[in-house]
User: Fold these one by one.
Assistant:
Number 1:
Amino acid sequence: MRGIDELAMVDDPAWPELQGIFRASSVPVQVLPGDVDEGRRCLVQMQVSARSALGALALHSGGLLVDDGWVRVFGGGSGSAAGGRLPSLGQVNRFPTDFAPGRHPATGLVVGHDVLGGVFALNGGDPAAAGRPGAPGQMTYFAPDTLAWEAMEMGHSGWVSWLLSGRLETFYDGLRWPGWREEASALDLGQGVSVYPFLWSQEAHADLAATSRRPVPMREVLGAAADFARQMGPADPGFLGDA
């Protein structure tokens, strides 16, 4: 086990580079203030250093709100704030209070959610055993419109850069309706968007703008997606993170 000083006090931290990416991005991004103690706890449990984007986000931020909150990137947890709070990497992944080797979901690490119940996760040591595509340590996405995991063929730091590159518009083609930005930005951090008819239905695929949408607790959005995936999708999606 590496202690917090070894993990946090590094010669080449990733945070300055990340700050440069945030400033240069044309995509709206809000860096939430973090909970220092919770961020340090996450760092120790993950055993990653501040040299990585994953460690830097945990140590120096409460997380990111990308594209007016459409995507939430988890960090050290935002504490209490107007509009609710964003959970930390540790809370989303059910880390124990005290360090426990290897104690996070065996299928991987949930690092982000979108407001529709899409889940961004880093693959664990044996993604095939969990029914997920892609290589260990690579990003995957659980798509609420197909109820399946998709390989993203990039690591975590590449994913953070990708989120801010302007390519989300293409990635979410067919999943954004007129006025989506206003609806996403109005959500509390503990809420997502419930869509009916459901995103995976023929009706939603044919005319997403005609669907009915309302804000609900994010845990309900994730729970419904998991239930439908088990009943109708290609496989049980496994752990989608706590919200």
Number 2:
Amino acid sequence: MGNKIKKDDNFLELVPKKTCGYKWKINENGFVQIIIPREGRLDKIVRFFFKTPKEMKIDLDEQGSCVWKLIDGENNIEDIGSNLKDEFGKKAEPIYERLGTYINILRNNDFIKLEKVSD
């Protein structure tokens, strides 16, 4: 793993991995809540003046929580999509288009990174 991703790589074969530094828990609704510490210098200044919280919490919905739990560094995107189909059926359709968008959102916000399996 860890090889550089190329444009012609099959997106479904990529393996998402959670990035370090973010804690998460299951909230009272049974969904995932990602907890982002706000410890940077600017964060501390903003907290001092505006009394903002030390952590930012992001609540995922039912399908997002399922995806987050399936991101274990072993499942590739195709495996995750297959699990979504089993879990949610037609409610998750179109599975791979929605999953691809969601994975890219997680990646663009540095919650995950994508790796490809070595040949």
Number 3:
Amino acid sequence: MRSMTPELPDDPEAEQVEAWVQLAELSQDPDFRAGVRRMAEHHAADRAQGGTARPLRDPAAMVRDQAGPASVAGVGPASPEADPVVAAVTAQYARVYGLPDDAGLRRRLLARLEVAGDPRRERYLRLLAVINGWPAPESLAPALEWFVRALRARTPG
């Protein structure tokens, strides 16, 4: 999805109008707007850290690819079997952004994923897909929730 902007067609279907109204209501939620602002600030900080010479990978996508299978397989987030999953994601995040894979990086990643895991973000993306006629996005909630618990269990204060 190149644009996160809703574009209601000239002759919208009823479900698109309903999604438009729901999106308007969601956009009035001050907590949601603050979360979107934090996501934008995190994205800007990540781009500044990682430079603009190469496309940067969204941390939520890293988690989806690595933690999704572990979550589906029933691996406990606090179990030793989760260690390599956490290590793989944090190493990839560190490599992409040119940062050391340390406690500071883990706290930074945790902050970004907690914002990305807001259920209102997923609702926004689903409404946006309806309005714009896009396929429904895959839910990242199970993988994000699993990974946040796993990372939190391995991140000091």
Number 4:
Amino acid sequence: MCTPRHGSRSITQTIRHARLRRWLLTLPGQVRRSTVAGYTIHARRYLIPYLGHHTLADLRPAHVEAMFTEIGAQPSRTGAPLSAATLQKIRATLRRALNMAIREQLLTINPARLIVLPRPRRHRPQPWSASRVAAWQQDGQHPVVAVWTPQQLAEFLLFVRDDPLYALWWLAALRGLRRGELCALRWTDLDLAENTLTVNHTIAHAYGQPYQDVPKTAAGQRTIALDHATTVALRIHQHHQCEQLQEAGKQWRPDGPVFIRLGRPIRPDWLTHRFATLVADSELPPIRLHSLRHGAATLALAAHVELKTVQDMLGHTSYAFTADTYATVLPDQAKDAAESTARLLLEALHEVGPVMGAAPQAVP
């Protein structure tokens, strides 16, 4: 068994704790602040309690496997078991920590590399079709990752047309910015004369507090073309923001945040809560805030935008990731594709009809 030891600390615990803490201290400047925070949580919540009584020389894959068996059986803070993705992240933290011991020649192999864990299941976005809406209304069933159809999205945007953040919802729905990118957006990042928007920063979280950071990858720092309707929405929002700040005795700044609440930049966690409230009030089938990003991609693909353009708009590093994530399309487009494919076969069947016998009627 790999029961955690929370009582008196042995010498080996102290050594183990010290090494993990020293490793954590080497991380700032190498990785993002939010990544350091995640590593620290994993070390304190799992690695030290379950592995802290082992010396590096004695640590074996069986010890690591026992740890994952036990923490995998325990409920998370939400009451559900830890997901496969969370277990993989904990293992990644341990692997990186033990890699430092290998560089210092304290280990020859990394025990965390030899552990087999369940692979996280990819959930592709699924549209809220009529049958899915009916199932949700009957007993609450819903896709893990759901997106609205264009009609449902239009209903939502009509519902929030008087919301102070209407331009934000519109921008998220049409151009697919992440919530941290929306919250970090400055007026200097917009060129409304040229109809472009540049993503230079994002708002991330570490230890429960937001902070400004650069996008995680080079692809995340990108310039996005804006359509005329989006530019108009942003100009109207800019006008209202100027009036709002003047009434509060403040001056509008061209380098200020595009989206504010009570005169201050918006926190990403508050934005998630606000979106959930609006969706519930609209009585539309539920989606997450991040699903507006999925919906923007799906909508663009349904409009026959090239996949490479969608990849650039979303800031994905990998073309293959974009293609795999958005392999599903909206129902109408899927139906059109199916009919077009069947039409080719039916036309061929009618050409060889005398040989093969009667064929189904071709689709008009």
